[in-house]
Amino acid sequence: MSSWKIQRKLHHVYLYSATSRRLLSSTCKCGKSLQQTSVKLLSTESLATAIHPSRTEENDSNPKAISLGDVYANNTVEERREFKHSRTPSQLILDHFDRRYGQQFGSDWGDIRAALMAPKLNGLLLNNFAQVSTKVATILQEHGLQKVSDLCDISSHLNWWEEGETIGIQNYHKGTESSLKFYIHPENRHVWFPKLKHVPGQLKSYFLQGASSLLPVLALDVQQDDSVLDMCAAPGGKSLALLQAAELGLLTSNEPDLWRRRRLAETLQSYIPQEILQTRVDVSKLNGVHFQDVTPNTFDKVLVDAPCSNDRSWLYSKNSVGMKMRIEDRRHLPQLQASLLRSALHAVKPGGTVVYATCTLSQKENDDVVEFCLRQNKSRIDVINLNNFSKNFQKIFRFDSSTRYGQLVLPHVNANWGPMYLAKLKKIDT
After folding, report:
1. Does 305 appear as a known binding residue?
2. What digits encode the pLDDT tens for the residues 159-192?
3. Is 373 a catalytic residue?
4. Which fold has domain 91-427?
5. Active-site residue, selected from the candidate residues 30, 308, 359, 373
6. Pfam families this protein is in (predicted)?
């Protein structure tokens, strides 16, 4: 997800990214709060600490401060794992979560809170373009890992959507088995796999990510020869999964931030053969809000994995300046998210679909963003019902029963995936 930030001052809205200056088009208004205001650029040099605290924490004046980078550079695998799993969450952010999420989730917040502070789980996506080594196959077998498609019986029960289906209508038909080979422990236990280093010209055999990250890709339901836009693609996990899921006509993998785009390109080069990268993948750098103007009615499907509060990573932030700034910024993120979703709905073809996703629990960044875009385009957009879709995954994930438009995976100590919100929208064919 792109690390965009918004800062308001008087009647101006300032938008900045991690390493470059980007202009949010003043024509892409997203509500009264942005109307009749000017949008300016900020130099991010002075804001580096707030945006990327991990880059500056190791230079903190506190001689006892230890960065995660130092631990990874100087310690054994076991010591690194112990450090990562024993990190202390920020009390400032916990207090903020208690106020906001305590009100949103009520009595359920205690269990969600405990899960957020526990080590998160990772799954393993096998690379269809690379051979699986004997070592990897042995680890899969010894730890008893299983494919998500087998645990959820996706091959026989995964239901996709018929034409015209909207919220409240329950007409489904069977889809085809997903080609994604994603493995987790059947009892949601943590299994450690080493991270593979990037070696130019050599394809990696697996990619590590949370299992809930698979849901937006499955919900998008890409088919052969589809033209697909991954609007906020870095660091590249969902672009990679999209390319594994079907032989796409073209994947536009977009990331406006230079530093994150380099990481995206490295991810794709590490997993995808050059002939596919050269003929079926376009790595672009456009500000997502401009797709509606540059490529209207162009893509069969669009994934908006939107910049968000990212509750898990934010919880362990150690930079006090950055934490306070993010609490303020968080109030304005829905404006950017709505602009991106609105742009995606213009960029997709009539009859095409858009999946909007975040990794936050915030209702304001999830259902409320979808609701705002529906109000702006109510005659042109249908919401696809994901209730049956989520039922296929109830053996693995805990879902929030109170969402109105999408599905939200809630972290739980016995199923510590997420948070991951997803909603699916269809552009009416006129």
Report:
1. yes
2. 444 333 444 323 323 333 458 999 999 998 888 8
3. no
4. Rossmann fold (3.40.50)
5. 359
6. Methyltr_RsmB-F
